[in-house]
Write a structure and sequence with these properties.
It contains 14 helices and 16 strands. It is an alpha/beta fold. The protein folds into 3 domains: 205 residues, Isopropylmalate Dehydrogenase (3-Layer(aba) Sandwich), CATH 3.40.718.10; 125 residues, Isopropylmalate Dehydrogenase (3-Layer(aba) Sandwich); 38 residues, no CATH class. Strands 2-1-3-14-13-4-5-12-10-11 form a 10-stranded mixed beta sheet, sandwiched between helices. α1 runs parallel beside α14, α6 runs parallel beside α7 and α12 crosses α14. Bound molecules: NADP nicotinamide-adenine-dinucleotide phosphate and magnesium ion (MG).
């Protein structure tokens, strides 16, 4: 059988630990037999990041800008333990943070829905995609404890020396105070990435803030979204038959719980932090959560939402059997291949991505799964077969064949 041809290479960002092992197995058993895989390879494994003084991470992000689509394996974000473990020159920054900063992107997380793994919210039939604004607000706050009586003020000094002052509170006794900010440019990038991705996915876009209470700060988010929508996206949305829906954040939460799902839910930084954990845990498993970074320029980087599954890796190193779920990593590859196929007009590549996803889901639906899913499935246990890491991928390969 002739292999499926590719035109433009994918940017391939290899990673660490157990996911690095999944990565190689997926390529060997699920992709290379069918696709004449073209990639520009960057080794983001921690050892190589250290050897290159993290230049490889920057290079891989620049390549993504140039080629348009990347697939990334999970990577270690070093902490003090990792500096010792790998004898690092420095505590390198999070690769995801570096890549996101270069691409100016927004992360969209979507659960993979499969029969027998039921969401806790029984009316959720379609996946909910969560988009979190990844800049500012309480994550870049300045705060301190107020020791006692006194006056707290907000002061802005313009470049021309002009001061704007506002009283925050006349303290009568001790308390706390905090300053937060955001940037029009960052909110605009976030809005564009959300509109862009909604069009790409042909899904509704929801956005909520607390602009009834925060009449300037949160209202600025709403205004920017509204303006960009009216000027640049409204007619495209109408053509695609999708809608942009704004409501108060608390109303959004209430409606989401009663919905069938299927929307992209854009959230401010804190709301997204909290709600993404709620949505992902309600859908079942971190191992089934996919993630894509979309830049306002329309560049895509696909990955699994989980980390390198360190605990399983240490078992693997000791020669013990592991049962690590490769679904999110497989879907990172299919996401990247499908997007590459769409951009290059390669129908066969798009169809291959669909088939590989179907084969993965069919395998699970037939009762063959990794341990994490076996623990939460609603399929009766006598119909479940738990496979180890490699045997599960073999089972998917068999279905695919
Ligand atoms: P993790 O790798 O997401 O794993 C946490 C736990 O979740 C695992 O121990 C395992 O539970 C379960 N799990 C996650 N993915 C699974 C899968 N595919 N199959 C089965 N079970 C899965 O998080 P972590 O252990 O806290 O972090 C490990 C490293 O990953 C860290 O160095 C961190 O910096 C990095 N990280 C990277 C990314 C990224 O690159 N995007 C994201 C997050 C974390 P059990 O042990 O109970 O089986
Ligand atoms: Mg969180």
């Amino acid at each position: 059988m002739a292999k499926i041809e590719m035109k433009t290479p994918l940017v391939e960002m290899d990673g660490d630990e157990m996911t690095r092992i999944l990565w190689a197995l997926i390529k060997e058993k699920l992709l290379l037999p069918y696709v004449d895989l073209k990639t520009e390879y960057y080794d983001l494994g921690l050892k190589h990041r250290d050897e290159t003084d993290d230049q490889v991470t920057i290079d891989s992000a620049e390549a993504t800008k140039r080629l348009g689509v990347a697939v990334k394996c999970a990577t270690i974000t070093p902490n003090a333990d990792r500096v010792k473990e790998y004898g690092l020159k420095e505590m390198w920054k999070s690769p995801n943070g570096t890549i996101r900063a270069i691409l100016d992107g927004t992360v969209f997380r979507t659960p993979v829905i499969v029969k027998w793994i039921e969401p806790c919210v029984k009316n959720w039939e379609q996946p909910i995609t969560l988009a979190r604004h990844a800049y500012g607000d309480v994550y870049k706050n300045v705060e301190f404890r107020v020791p006692g009586a006194g006056k707290a003020e907000l002061v802005f000094t313009g470049e021309d020396g002009q001061e704007t002052r506002k009283l925050i509170q006349e303290f009568k006794g001790p308390g706390v105070v905090q300053g937060v900010h955001n940037l029009d440019a960052s909110i605009e990038s976030f809005a564009r990435a959300c509109f862009q991705y909604a069009l790409d996915q042909k899904k509704e876009l929801w956005f909520g803030t607390k602009d009834t209470i925060s009449k300037t700060y949160d209202a600025r988010f709403r205004e920017i979204f509204d303006t960009i929508y009216e000027n640049d996206y409204k007619s495209q949305f109408e053509q695609a038959g999708i809608t942009y829906f704004y409501t108060l954040i608390d109303d959004a939460v209430a409606r989401i719980m009663k919905s069938k799902g299927g929307m992209i839910w854009a959230c401010k930084n804190y709301d997204g932090d909290v709600m993404s954990d709620m949505v992902s845990s309600a859908f079942g498993s971190l191992a089934m959560m996919t993630s894509v970074l979309v830049s306002p320029a329309g560049v895509y980087e696909y990955e699994a939402a989980h980390g390198t599954v360190q605990r399983h890796y240490y078992k693997h190193l000791k020669g013990e059997e592991t049962s690590t779920n490769p679904v999110a990593t497989i879907f990172a590859w299919t996401g990247g291949l499908r997007k590459r196929g769409e951009l290059d007009g390669l129908t066969d590549l798009v169809k291959f991505a669909d088939r590989l996803e179907r084969a993965t889901l069919d395998t699970i639906e037939s009762g063959i799964m990794t341990k994490d899913l076996a623990l939460i499935t609603t399929l009766p246990q006598e119909r479940v077969t738990v496979k180890n890491t490699e045997a599960f991928i073999d089972a998917v390969a068999q279905k695919l064949a």
